Structure formats: structure tokens, C-alpha cells
Amino acid sequence: MEESWLAIYEALPYLLKGSAVTIGLVAGALALGLILGIPMAINQVYGNKYIKIIISFYVWFFRGIPVLVLLFLFYFGLFVLLGLDLSAFKAGILVLGLRSAAYQSQIFRGSIQSLGEGQMLASLSLGMSKIQAIWNIILPQAIRISLPGWSNEYSIILKDSAVTYAIGLMEIMTRGKFIATRTFKPMPIYLICALIFLILTYGGVKLLSELEKKVRIPGFGNKGEGN
Amino acid sequence: MQEDQPIVLKIENIHKRYGETEVLKGVSFTVKRGETKVIIGPSGSGKSTLLRCINQLTIPDQGRVWLEDEEVTHIKKDINLFRQKIGMVFQDFNLFDHLTALRNVEIGLIKVKGMNKKQARERAYNELLRVGLKDQANLYPAQLSGGQKQRVSIARALAMDPSVILFDEPTSALDPELIGEVLEVIKNLALSGMTMVVVTHEMGFARSVANEIIFIENGMILDQGSPYDLFINPKHERTKKFLYKITELYGKSKDE
Questions:
Q1: How many whole angstroms separate alpha carbon A18 and alpha carbon A192?
Q2: Tally of domains in chain A
Q3: Which of A98, A110, A195, B20 has the fewest other C-beta atoms within 10 Å?
Q4: What is the DSSP string of A94-162?
Q5: Is residue A97 part of a domain?
Q6: Closest Cβ opposite residue B98 in set A121, A217, A223
Q7: Neighbours of B118 (CB within 10 A)
Q8: Of B230, B100, B80, B224, which Cα lies nearest the Cα of B155?
Q9: Chain A interface with B: residues with Cβ < 8 Å
């Protein structure tokens, strides 16, 4: 028992360093997914039919392949083929981010479509261009509606990030495995890994639900209570 | 009074077809400055489509629209400039749900007209005052009643200084006891000389404010004339029947 505590005590700083890598990876992937996902969603609703086909193909591709396969396909395949010498960290952000873009685009698309065409019609009838309407009217509402789904996406990516162990990124899991084999104490070490993931999930989801409360539109969700 | 006023809006031979159904089969009319034109007709007769063809929210298959001598349907003209001058009030309000009443009214001034924020706010506030909602300026649409929402949307249209406002059944989505406050606002606009095209089923309103009533059925103008002409002296048996029916329906009990 005492040995287990000792192993944890010694491993903790090392694992926490891995947490920083995990957080960076997840933040990068989510940001990339957001930057790509929003324009994809907009074009899937308002774009022409060719761009819609291209986006549907993209979504089909990235949603249909296991993340581990994608990771290997890109890291050992495509990136090598293209002569890109990417670090495991950058490769991880790229693959998880491209994949998240597919999922995020569907979260935002659903939100945009849930708004109803009246918002766009009213914007246009004021003389706004389509782009002005999307920027000023559609997105501010769609993003609010998307927050719960986006928070879910965060918790999924966070946990999926552990697969970067397979390309040797020094994140939580890789470090955990490393120490577990060295100390012959897999149980306490992996428990600590699990605990770190639990805390990160809780913290992130909590933060996002605070944001959700903060940007909530007054009177919404309690219909009939208005004056 | 409107006799010698200039023409604000001219609609010529508008056709629109959705697949097999021809919704509009060549509709033409003109609206002079200060005139209130009321369009009536059974559901599905193409009234809403006609209004949307005016500001090109729906692109007509054929026909032309002029606003103050400029052709709206001209391919080289920027449609957004025309839409600024053609106000529109929708049946289901379409207020921007994430913005307060005041922000709903000022956003067009800021984003479309490029007015500075202080001026826009002042103007928006005055428009809310005009529709009797100064106390609701900082409430969100979800906190307003249907009648209040529709009045905000009228203020939003008014703030843009439109040459004409199109009303698409502005009271059809309202509870019966809220219809009055909205009609009152529209009536006052008519009296103040605003140029308007109003699609409605409110015959009392049509009778009291319309300079001309247009009866549309099956995508065509069947009858048009002053309220007196249509109510007392309709040309067609069909107009008489429709007016009788709708007056009975909306006149007697308002809760359908």
C-alpha cells in the first residue's frame, strides 16, 4: 500500500506535465474544429449544391473512420507522403481537429436550421446582405444553441486525445503507461490517469455550462412567463 | 387626396410558379404616396408570395417591380438598397430573439445604414415610443406578448425610413384580445400618411383605412376598388360571397 502511494507521489508531477500536453492538444483540436466547423455549417445550410456535396463527403469521411485509423493514416501515411515533418503534437491537433470539424459542423448546422427561415428573411428585408445576416443574426443565436452540444464535443475529444499515445505523444496516457511499466504499479497509476481525465472533463463542462448561463437569452425556455 | 400624389410602388405582371402550381398569374397594381392598399383573398391565393415578390425575398418568374421610378427587378441594381426602403412586417414577427426590443430596432440602422450608435439608439427609442413600447425597450422578444412583439417589428421597419411598408397578415398569429393594439398602430400609420400594402383578413380594418381593396383569388386580381365599391357594390358574385363569409367569421367570433 505504502509503495503505491510512493509511486503516485513520484509519478504525479510527471503525469501533470502530461495533462498540460493533453490540454494543449484538446484546445488546439477544438479550436481547429471550430474554425473549420462553423463555415462548413454555414455553407451546408446556405451554400450552393457543389459545396454542400463536398462538405457532406468530408463529414462522411471523418465520421466514418475510427480515430486511431485516422491518426495512423495521416501520421504514418499522408504526412509522410506529403513530406511533412510534423511533431506528434501538431499531428494530433491536426487529425483530432479535422475530425472534430466534421462533428462540430453538424452541431452548428442543426442549430442554424432550428432557427427557422424567418430570422434570415427579416434580416434581408431590412437590407442586410446574406453575410451580414449570418454574422449579426444567425450565428449569435446558433452558437448559443450549440453550447450544450459543443460541451459534449469537448468531453469526447478530451477522452479521444488518449489515442495519441499510439504515435508517442507525451500526454497523460503515454506517461502513465511509461511509469506503470517501470514501477510495476499499473492500478494506482492508471487510476490517477483516470482521475485526471475525470477532473478535466468536469472542469471543462462546468466552465462551458457557466458560459451557457451567462449568454442565455432572458425569457427563453420559460415560455408563457413573459409579461 | 392621393389622386395627384406620385406613384411609390408599381407592380407589373408578376408571375410565380412552384413546380406545377402557378401561384401568381400576372398581378399588376400601383401604390401612390400615402395610400393604404389592402389585399384580401382566401388562403393559398398567393397574397404572401406577392408581397415577397415585391422585395425579392421570392424572385418572380416574370414581371417587374418599380420603387419610385427605379426598377427593383433590374438585374444590375443592388437589391439590398431597395430592401432598406421597403419595410416588411411578418405574420410571425420574426424579431431577432437574441436582441432586446431596442437592439432589434437599432440593428438595421447601425449595420445597414451605418448610423453611429448613439444616433441609432435615439432613433430606435423614438420608434418604440411611437408604437407605445418605451417601457419595454430593454426586454427580449421572449419576454413580450404577441401584440408587443408585432409592434416592435413595426418599429423596426419604421426606423429604416421606408418609402413603403408591406404587412403580411400582421395580426393572424395574435390572440384575439391582442389584435386591437396592433391594428391601432397600423391605423395611425395610415392616418399619418405612411404608404402601405397590407395583406389581412381584418375586414373592419380594411373598411376603415383602405384607399383601395384588392381581392386576389387563384393568383389573379378578381376585383379591386374602394371599400365602398367592394363591400356595397362588388362586381363579382364571388367577391360578395368571400366578403360575406370572412366578415361573418372574423366579425362574430374572433377566436376561430
A1: 12
A2: 1
A3: B20
A4: HHHHHHHHHHHHHHHHHHHHHT-THHHHHHHHTT--HHHHIIIIIHHHHHHHHHHHHHHHHHHHHHHGG
A5: yes
A6: A217
A7: 8
A8: B100
A9: 118-119, 121-129, 132, 136-137, 140-141, 144, 217-220, 223, 226-227
| Domain count along chain B | 1
Backbone angles phi and psi of A169, in degrees to 5: -70, 135
Distances (CA, A) of A191 to A4, A12, A200, A201: 11, 12, 14, 15
Helices (H), ranges, chain B: 47-54, 79-85, 101-111, 117-130, 146-159, 176-191, 203-209, 227-232, 237-252
What CATH code is carried by the domain that includes residue B49? Answer: 3.40.50.300
Does the residue A11 lie in any domain?
A: no
Whether B107 is in a domain gets the answer yes
Chain B residues within an 8 Å CB radius of A223 = 142
CATH, residue A145: 1.10.3720.10
Grid cell 479550436 — which residue? A31
Kindly report the nearest CA distance between residue B57 and chain A, in angstroms: 7
Q: Is B165 helix (H, G, I), strand (E, B) or coil?
A: strand
What would the 3-class secondary structure string for B129-160 be? HHCCCHHHCCCCHHHCCHHHHHHHHHHHHHHC
Question: Using one digit for the tens of pLDDT, what is the confidence trace for B164-192?
Answer: 999 999 999 988 889 999 999 999 999 99
First to last CA, chain A: 63
Residue A82 in any domain: the answer is yes
Q: What is the pLDDT of residues B148-164, one digit of tens each?
A: 999 999 999 999 999 99
